[in-house]
Design a protein that fits this description.
Blueprint: E1 17-19, H1 28-32, E2 43-45, H2 54-58, E3 68-70, H3 80-90, E4 95-97, H4 111-114
Parallel strand pairs: 1-2, 2-3, 3-4
């Protein structure tokens, strides 16, 4: 499946379930075309689609009836915790699988990173 291959699906106005797991050609442009399913799609799996970034995931905001979204193993998504927060805000009734709001945020507790943060006492200046 790829961007052009989605032409074969867009006429399916009642499509409820779409599984595109591990499709190497699914990318952000493909996700931008899914808006045609905004009234029908309830489950979407993008697990292992390695070309997807946070930009593509932002395009899913049109899918207002989505109840289940699998976005596990999306290696090109940076700041997974922040992306998860964004998705939860955009799709409040959707269960998001494969990312957590805590992803990436635990690195802030790493002592070596905290040691690099300098706190200046304002009263000392």
């Amino acid at each position: 499946m790829n961007y052009d291959g989605l032409d074969n699906l867009v006429h399916l106005k009642e499509l409820k379930y779409l599984y595109m797991n591990h499709c190497p050609h699914i990318d952000d442009w493909c996700l931008s075309r899914l808006h045609v399913f905004q009234d029908s799609l309830v489950e979407l799996s993008l697990a292992g689609c390695t070309q997807i970034t946070e930009r593509g995931l932002a395009a899913l905001h049109h899918l207002r009836h989505l109840k289940h979204l699998d976005i596990s193993h999306l290696d090109r998504v940076a700041d997974k915790g922040l992306v998860c927060i964004l998705l939860e805000e955009m799709l409040p009734h959707c269960e998001i699988i494969g990312m957590s709001t805590e992803d990436g945020l635990t690195s802030l507790t790493d002592e070596s990173k905290l040691a690099k943060i300098r706190v200046q006492n304002v009263s000392d200046t």
